[in-house]
Amino acid sequence: MEKYEIGNTVIGCVTGIEEYGIFVSLDQDYSGLIHISEISKNFVRNVNDYVTMGENIYVKILEIDEDKNHIKLSIKDINYQINKKRKAHIKETEKGFSTLKEMLPKWIELKEKEIMSKNS
């Protein structure tokens, strides 16, 4: 397995998430497991809090089993996220909340009339 070496950090794709760890495909021939103990130094309550299916992440190679083409991986001591999720940038309009301020009393009045007519 000349392609991968212990201690290297490579990119892989999350192909499975289980209670005990994360399965990662490195290429067509090699895959690995990030055991739950190799996810964080802190207690890991839910593995799903760290990755999502299909996400590409950085992984550190801990051990290589050449007979099975399987690799033991870790994300514990590395910045594993390639593209951190960005919050959508919301551009405020010139009116801001003024439309809501204007319309809310009208909507309340309409709803009150609707409720009153149903109760009559």
Describe this structure in words.
This protein has 120 residues and is an alpha+beta fold. The protein has a domain at 9-74: Nucleic acid-binding proteins (OB fold (Dihydrolipoamide Acetyltransferase, E2P), Beta Barrel). 18% of the residues lie in helices and 29% in strands. It has a five-stranded mixed β-barrel with strand order 1-2-3-5-4. A hairpin with a 2-residue loop joins strand 1 (9-18) and strand 2 (21-25).
In short:
This protein is an alpha+beta fold and 120 residues long. It has a domain at 9-74: Nucleic acid-binding proteins (OB fold (Dihydrolipoamide Acetyltransferase, E2P), Beta Barrel), CATH 2.40.50. It has one helix spanning 98-119; strands at 9-18, 21-25, 31-35, 56-65, 70-74.
**In percent, how helical is the residue content?**
10-25%
Superfamily (CATH H level) name of the domain at 9-74: Nucleic acid-binding proteins
* The CATH C-level class name of the domain at 9-74: Mainly Beta
Number of helices: 1
Chain-averaged pLDDT:
87
CATH topology category name of the domain at 9-74:
OB fold (Dihydrolipoamide Acetyltransferase, E2P)
Number of strand elements: 5
Share of β-strand residues: 25-35%
Task: Please state the CA-atom Rg, rounded to the nearest Å.
Answer: 25 Å
What is the N-to-C order of secondary-structure elements (H for helix, E for strand)? EEEEEH
Q: Which regions contain 5 or more consecutive residues with pLDDT less than 50?
A: none
Major sheet details: 5 strands, mixed, barrel
Between the first and last Cα atoms, what is the distance in angstroms?
Answer: 80 Å
Structural class: alpha+beta
Strand arrangement within the widest β-sheet reads 1-2-3-5-4
Based on the structure given, which CATH architecture of the domain at 9-74 is correct? Beta Barrel
Shape: elongated
